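thought: fold this chain, then report.
action: predict
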Amino acid sequence: MHYHFEWDPAKAAANLKKHRVSFEQATEIFKDPIALTVYAEDSSGDEERWVTLGEVQQQYYLVVVHTYHDSEINVVRIRIISARLATKQEIKQYGHG
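observation:
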């Protein structure tokens, strides 16, 4: 399975300024084999949003809000909406997921 990532450049810049996490960094959580992904109950409009909590290179934890889009066979298209460092409570959830 391969991932194709996309995002709005302006949103990526704003996210980096606000949370100090780049969307490039955010793509790394999808390499975490035990990342937790749940449906975002507050999904807006006709777009289903998902939240993934994962570890990046065994160094830190991120929470990434994203969508899945129609893909080709063996390719998953993911649009990243936001990314931030996980809170202590979220890290505990990850450990007990």
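thought: worth noting. Residues 2-43+50-95 form a domain with the Nuclear Transport Factor 2; Chain: A, fold (CATH 3.10.450.530).
final: tokens above.
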